[in-house]
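Please check this.
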Amino acid sequence: MSLRKHFWSRHIEDSIMIEEEGQLPQCTRCGLFMKDANSQKHHDSIECRKFAVRRERFFCAQRQAEAVEVNFSISGVEIERVARFRYLGRILDENDDDRHALERQLARARARWSRIAPVLRSEGVRPKTMGYFYKAVVQAILLYGSETWVVSDSLMKQLRSYHSRIARYLTGKHIRQNADSSWFCPPTTGVLEEAGLETVDEYIKRRRDTVRNFVMFRPLYDICRQSTAITNRAVWWKLS
């Protein structure tokens, strides 16, 4: 039995019955058993909100574990199960994790820049002109599919770091140690401006705005907005 399942089983055993008061009602949100389980006061409490989040995560993990066990077959032949696959050049993960897609695009962008940068540098191209090549060729690869990425703080840090290193390469303003052991660290904002680049956050935002503005004027957008989600949320809150 996993740690989470053990926690909830002990939680139920300890909470469902109190000899002095009998069986208590169960909160439909957090799962706790108490007198005022479904009162507005309890629902607004920090304890209820905290356990509701934990409970939702527990059932979500349980549903994902059950989904992994499902097998599909065609004409009696079982279909091979893969954790991730490539669709239209983008890596899709069974857990909706975009880390693999981002890391793949980052690796491809590095490979492409390693071929272009020496040529531009040998020709003595100005920083802003090299920046145009970077945006047109390398950044198009780096941010491919970023319109729908769910980017965590750690992944965004990788993107910002790579983008800043490119800007420092273009301008020649690298972070380096001086002879007196102090460090020379030009501000990233100034380096980006000299290279003619915006932040990587801004480029991702522009891509998402372009897609959003396109979708908003499609008939399907209004249909989706007027639709009602069909869920069985009540079952999620119910303990068997």
Observations:
- The longest strand covers residues 84-87.
